[in-house]
Amino acid sequence: MRSVDARLDEGQGLAEAIGINVVGRRAFRIRAPRPASLFGKGQAEEIAEQAVDHEATLLIVDAALSPVQQKTLEDVSKCKVIDRTGLILEIFGERAATAEGRLQVELAHLDYQAGRLVRSWTHLERQRGGFGFLGGPGETQIEADRRLIRDRMARIRKELDQVKRTRGLHRGRRQKAPWPVIALVGYTNAGKSTLFNRMTAASVMAENLLFATLDPTMREVRIPGFDKAILSDTVGFVSDLPTELIAAFRATLEEVESADLILHVRDIAHPDSDAQAADVEGVLASLGLDEPASPPRIEVWNKLDLLRSDDRQALLNEAGRRDHVVCVSALEGTGIDALRTAISDRLQQEDEVRRLRVAAADGIRLAWLHARGQVLDQRIEGETIHLAVKLSPENLERYESL
């Protein structure tokens, strides 16, 4: 269960992530949500008074609002009102850097907007003209807008289907390549990009901002026992992540599904670290990645540098009692070597010794086995090489598909 202060801090952090100057914040206990306004009448009036006192022009409600509730609060507060979903969509809209990211954000935004066409239209009785491209006689303004939104959403989905096919081809090529793929997931601002930069010597945007990373980034990373591996940094998760966004970013998050290993990065110094971890697991489960069906995982307890020495030691002791948990400070580099070793061990955990025969002239297969497996023994008999190779079940399947 999250504390009220932590929830307020997160809401303020989301607002500040796109440059909004937060001049006031307040938590309200709502016993029975009002269909018309969410808040009780007295609470709504108090909010309006605070908006006037602070000369606020925007009111952010850290909850999901129906279109009617949003309109009512705008009328009462005389401010523009957005809810949590709208705010996250604004952040994503500003941060998406690739064409794919922008398409996914636009799709999510249109999906969100489609249910909100109960704005203050005062001309619904009027009919729109008969130019053809905006709707024929008998079609109201709101119906025309809805149809335009549906058409645009259909075009975007077609484009994203193409992106999905292209990603699938890239993934197929990567899976045939002799390198494991490791995906970073975690709550927003858990330090994924800082860890990514630390492990790959890259320079991905890593700031103390919620949703600093939106578009997936991949880089080569060195792991003991492997010729090389690929590390993928993905979008951060957040509590109450809008369903529109989960659906829209499914193509991006499929990178996680196809990974050989998932690193769940946690801000272990955050007071709501356990709740944040549960939110991440919930999103992964919604994508069909709940254990044990998903790729194997390691929990990376990050931000050791923010803990006092006695708390840090207690945490290290607790991690030592758990399987597949590594404590690090991505900022300072503490624990990174231990993490690399843990990744290597986890990737090879289910490896079994396979006895294979390869034509001596088949350099591609031989190089693949040496790069992706651990060759324990090999002997030559005529034109054939007999090998004892330690391979994971996934790599054996990939090898057989070569």
- Structural class category: alpha/beta
Mean pLDDT: 82
Tell me how many strands there are. 11
| Beta-strand percentage range | 15-25%
* Sequence stretches where pLDDT stays below 50 over 5 or more residues: 119-138
Oligomer: single chain
Q: Indicate the CATH class of the largest domain.
A: Alpha Beta
Order of neighbouring strands in the sheet with most strands? 4-5-3-6-7-8
End-to-end separation? 49 Å
The helix fraction, in percent, is 40-55%
CATH architecture of the largest domain: 3-Layer(aba) Sandwich
| Number of helices, where a helix is a run of at least 4 consecutive DSSP H or I residues | 14
Tell me what the structure shows.
- Strands 4-5-3-6-7-8 form a six-stranded mixed sheet, sandwiched between helices. It has a three-stranded antiparallel sheet with strand order 9-11-10.
- The protein contains 14 helices and eleven strands.
- The protein is an alpha/beta fold and 402 residues long.
- About 5% of the residues have low confidence.
- The chain has four domains: 87 residues, Rossmann fold, CATH 3.40.50; 71 residues; 170 residues, P-loop containing nucleotide triphosphate hydrolases (Rossmann fold); 50 residues.
- The protein is 45% helix and 16% strand.
- The chain is globular, with a radius of gyration of 26 Å.
